[in-house]
Amino acid sequence: MIRPRIQVRQRTYPPLLFHPLGGCGEIGMNLSLYGYDDHWIAIDCGMMIRQDLPDQPLQIPDTDHLAAHHMVPSAVFITHGHEDHLGALAWIWPRWNCPVYATPLAIEMLRAKFLEQGLKTEALIAVKPGARVEVCGFGVEFLPVTHSIPESCALSIMTPAHRVLHTGDWKLDPAPVVGAPFSPKPFQAMAPVDLVVADSTNADVEGHSRSEAEAASALEGVVRECRGRVIVSCFASNIARIKALGQIAERSGRRVALLGRSMERMVAIATQLGYLDELPPRVPTHDLGYLPPEEVLIIATGSQGEPRSALSRLAQGRHPAIDLEPGDDVIFSARAIPGNERLIERLKAGFKRLHVNVHDERSDPALHASGHPAREELRKLYRWLQPKLLMPVHGESVHQEAHGELARSLGIEVPTLPKNGVVVALENGSLTPRHQHHLRPQLIASRTRPGQSSSPVAARHRAKTLAIAVTVLPTETGWTRIGRLLWDSDTALPLDEDALSDWLDARIDAAPSETLLQLRQQIFAPLRDWLEERLPAVPELHLQLMPADPQPEFEVKTVSTR
Description:
Helix content: 25-40%
Mean pLDDT: 87
Distance between the termini: 101 Å
Protein name: Metallo-beta-lactamase domain-containing protein
Radius of gyration: 26 Å
Low-confidence stretches: 449-463, 550-562
InterPro entries: Metallo-B-lactamas (IPR001279), RibonucZ/Hydroxyglut_hydro (IPR036866), RMMBL (IPR011108), RNase_J_2 (IPR042173), RNase_J_b_CASP (IPR055132)
Structural class: alpha/beta
Keywords: Exonuclease, Hydrolase, Metal-binding, Nuclease, RNA-binding, Zinc
Shape: globular
Domain Metallo-beta-lactamase: 28-208
Number of strands: 25
Organism: Salinicola rhizosphaerae
């Protein structure tokens, strides 16, 4: 028997590594790293607002371990412009100093953040949907998808041995208000893929997500029935909803105004890129009080109950531009993010005290259209892609589990439900968890810039007095501030009234007190410390808490004498 002199060995390739640092087992703060042949890339870099903590700090992903393990990315790819996908980049990018690739809308949002925080913007590279970028052995293609913000993309990630689709956030919208409908062709052309790393947010919801056109139609029906002012709250990044509201205002004889800095900034960027050319001229906020109520439609931030938002200020009767009146209408056109339910209910209770009508998903489910796929949409995508493996991300554990169950019913393998910090290897057609890195919460004061530290206050000198009067109302869970903040000093103080109001709101809302005496005891010393950090001369502080008349549904709580 003659043996061949040359034996051809099958070529071996390094594994593809997946390392999520946010967005697995939680909603928000999305950041995923892919590694191949000792090179790494990052997909998204988001943040979340910790409304469960005092002062609502920002939380960003923990990346401290990356340098020590030679996992610093050579490039960042952003799927779309939502804060939970790009909001942390200005904090983390200085550690990486690498190119950032994103579509033009996301790039302009990042440019504004970088410039605001003193960072150079040369690394921000705009690419059009459909473009392909080659970086260190990775080929990354931006595949356009429909979502609640324009220019959203899934990412096709290719190595010499792997075909992966990272979906980002998406839905199958046949009638988007902005942009083209979802096209299946690029995804059908990829089939079969080795792995899908996929959005799980609505994986426990059967059926199909609602189109933006349907939500716009429902909004118009409600607005036409309103007789007073109309305030619609939605996410500032939902450009399609803002565009639809502008058209609704014109057709219903109302004029548009914007409330909230993030809303104004987002509209300015979207207008610059041509997405809101048809938005009617806007009324300056300081002129709103001169218009008849039936001619006003306000688009406001704060749908998640954020204490510092425009909507919260309206609910507490302390917005500087406008006071709501009985018979006005507030429309919540945004889904509650898990964890924000208590804040949103407190916000709605504030409008109820003002005798303002509230419209939300309970009264009319069609007022909001989710930007994420329900189960039927997931089934369609997987029929097009024909994936062998799935890793469910972008969701809490219950969403990941529901997503895994759905995929298995379609014959797709789901070997693991990844958690933040794990390193998973895709090798020889299988997924294997390798390491688990311990991640620590990275909290940042929401008013602090990257690299900024609080400067020590100069030598203290005792001022005379500072008197602060606060009107508070008992609620089911404690107390909340209403009305205007009143303060007076017999010397000039460089005091930021907005910052003081925000601090008081957060402290009062979080205080577990049952009486006014307890409430004062719990906030007086922290308030004095807060003032000492910010004022060159420390005043003698007089704090007066004044109870407002409680409403029937909110009884004043008393301490038992037993």
